[in-house]
Specification:
By secondary structure, the protein is mainly α. It has a domain at 20-86. It has 4 helices and 2 strands; from the N terminus they run ββαααα.
Length: 112
């Protein structure tokens, strides 16, 4: 008697939610939680709701557009690659060859 197993074909695909990919879901969630905390702090501090609500709504809209734009522009791993590439130096200066000559002398006789 043969058993029938279903194959999960989405194993290696990134997590997606309403067009957001991978870590951008977390970025949006963290931003929304921070907006909720900002609203609560402003409300407890006694700020007017007529001032507080439009500010929170505008910042929330900007957050949504920014996160969706980053998700569509960079994709799953593109933002991390972009930030890593930005931190690379343009060039490296060596004023002496001593580093390389000492490296050769230290490894002399040993296999790498």
């Amino acid at each position: 008697m043969a058993s029938v197993y279903q194959i999960n074909k989405g194993v290696s695909k990134p997590i997606m939610f309403k067009g957001l990919k991978a870590q951008y879901i977390a970025y949006l969630a963290i931003g929304l939680v921070l907006l909720l905390l900002a609203f609560a702090i402003g409300y407890v501090a006694g700020l007017s709701l007529f001032l507080l609500m439009p500010v929170i709504i505008i910042i929330g809209t900007v957050l949504f557009f920014a996160v969706f734009r980053l998700s569509h522009r960079f994709g799953e791993h593109g933002l991390m690659k972009f930030l890593a590439k930005r931190n690379l130096p343009d060039h490296i200066k060596f004023r002496s060859r001593r580093l390389f000559t000492q490296l050769k002398q230290q490894n002399h006789g040993r296999s790498i």
